[in-house]
Amino acid sequence: MSALKIKKGATSHSAYNLRPNFSDVEERHTLAVLVENEPGVLARVIGLFSGRGYNIDSLTVAEVDHSGHLSRITIVTTGTPQVIEQIKAQLGRIVPVYKVNDLTVEGPSVERELAMFKVAGSGDKRVEALRLADIFRANVVDSTLNSFVFEITGAPEKIDAFADLMRPLGLVDVARTGVAALSRGD
Questions:
Q1: Hey, is 5 helix, strand or coil?
Q2: Containing H/E element for 10?
Q3: Measured between alpha carbons, how far is residue 170 from residues 32, 142, 160, 177 in Å?
Q4: Which pLDDT score, from 0 to 100, does residue 179 have?
């Protein structure tokens, strides 16, 4: 008997689909998780990520309903579509979690972040930093003879672009809040 010469993934010679049906492309997703506002919930959510080796790019938490004792955790993470689905399923199994929304998949959403930048410099660099801050609509929240502290709000890409422009002008320190996101429309 001669061996069959079938190329992997060739469907014309086989009754079986030999092509993998999963993607290995990393995607960025924003997850909004509604949880009960009680001690230890955040630790359990974070433990899920760290225990399985998932990365968190951004994390924000705040109480959204005082009378209902509900908090919203906004998590930005990256992974393959299978990993993201696994994260959502595992988050949904945690007892104090009420709802998990994948804002990336569910439609258009608005993402904003607040950041503060400390920029030290003098002369032309100081003037250039002020000019760029004006273009990016950043506010000066503190000023000394040697430095500025700028406050800027916007999409994470805008914050990154502002940081890149401030580095050669004397960027000393950065503080970022993380992404806050809501879905658009009804």
A1: coil
A2: none
A3: 36, 16, 16, 21
A4: 94
